[in-house]
Write a structure and sequence with these properties.
Radius of gyration: 18 Å
Number of domains: 1
Order of helices and strands: HHH
Shape: flat
Oligomer: single chain
């Protein structure tokens, strides 16, 4: 049986949080945060709790989605705009 910390660490690594690439690491952290908040939201619903009664988990899920989208767009822009080194590449 795994502990809660082991479960979270496993989910973080599965999302790519252990990658050395800074962009992949940023995306993995955002995915991890989004999925963790969504899991809390879904657990509340599964146990018959209205997520709105326990704070704003729905708003946190939305904010995490927006944050992930922002990071993905930022990473996408940094990949498509490669710096000009000023030298010949041939």
């Amino acid at each position: 049986m795994t502990t809660f910390d082991q479960e979270l660490t496993g989910r973080y690594v599965a999302a790519g949080g252990d990658r050395p690439d800074p962009d992949a690491h940023r995306i993995a952290r955002a995915v991890f945060v989004r999925d963790t908040i969504r899991a809390l939201y879904d657990a509340d619903k599964r146990f018959g709790l209205d997520p709105a009664d326990n704070g704003s988990l729905a708003e946190l899920v939305d904010a995490a989605e927006e944050h992930l989208e922002h990071i993905a767009n930022d990473v996408s822009r940094s990949i498509t705009t490669t710096p000009n080194t000023g030298g010949d590449t041939a």
